[in-house]
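User: Predict ABC transporter permease's structure from this.
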Amino acid sequence: MGAYILRRLLLIPVTLFGIMLVNFALVQFVPGGPVEQAIARIQGGGDVFGGFAGSGSDTDTVDLGGSDNYVGARGLPPEFIEELEKEFGFDKPPVERFFRMLGSYITFDFGESYFRSISVVDLIKEKLPVSITLGLWSTLIAYLISIPLGIKKAVRDGSRFDTWTSGAIIAAYAIPGFLFAILLLVLFVPANCFRIPGLADMWPGGAALNPTCYELFPLRGLTSDNFDQLSAWGKVKDYFWHITLPVLASTISAFATLTLLTKNSFLDEIKKHYVMTARAKGLSERKVLYGHVFRNAMLIVIAGFPAVFIGVFFGSSLIIETIFSLDGLGRLGFEAAVARDYPIVFGTLFIFGLIGLLVGIISDLMYVLVDPRIDFEKREG
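Assistant:
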């Protein structure tokens, strides 16, 4: 097992190099890079150039009041554009920029955001708790529901219960996460909240919004504006009040997949000879199911926990965080891609790629821990 893990670890740098190379090459053909974005903001009256080092006196003469002295009205000087390119590092050839970037990433130096004047690492630390919250709760709820439901479906395979639940699961899986999120907003976040006098204080955040307003769920954010003034129990209620809809929206796809995976895994084990032998010995169906079948059937489900978490963490965070206005990594990546903030784009890509590769190794270790009979080295041989 040690040799297998070592080979997998040695493949990580090669795989990361390929991921970064492909994405870096694709970005070179994308129009509207950081320099163009900065020029567009300047010509539109933005002040993004105010944070550039060494902008020179050319920027000091910019008049944002709409007069004839406004530089954007007659085109920016070539010297200023060259200064922008130098500031962003685009005065060097792409190959040199790529290897400089990789050299910095090896030491986990991801640089600073082009437009936020903050390091990429600090930005990720700031946004990470929101995304981890969604990923952990979504994965936990998916497992808590999927495993018992999948076992029951396997035991009652072919029954009316199995048929109806399969239809509902397939329908839920077919609904895109963003569409389900929008549906939740339409159903539970009405434009005009319900007026129920006297019940405002019974729902977290209701009194802060309107003394006579009873709102089912909030439209955005992870906490209310008055979160710091709430009691300990009030903060707990407010937190769960805010994460309910985002977690439901991000759980739906993982829940469907895990349920069917659990059912099929149990069905495969139930049909094996050791189960027939256990039944022939007179063991109860419950003891056969949970004493013999459960460990073998749950192997693939339990071992896949890291991969499921990463899938929910990365797959749903972008859309869900954008729809519910949650300030997490998904929304950060989306905004960085739109603004062509390449340090954030490539920094998060490198970190997520590294985490994904490490999680793949952890998943294999989980298989061995759950069932020591598995030997990846013999399988490779």
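The longest helix spans residues 232-270.
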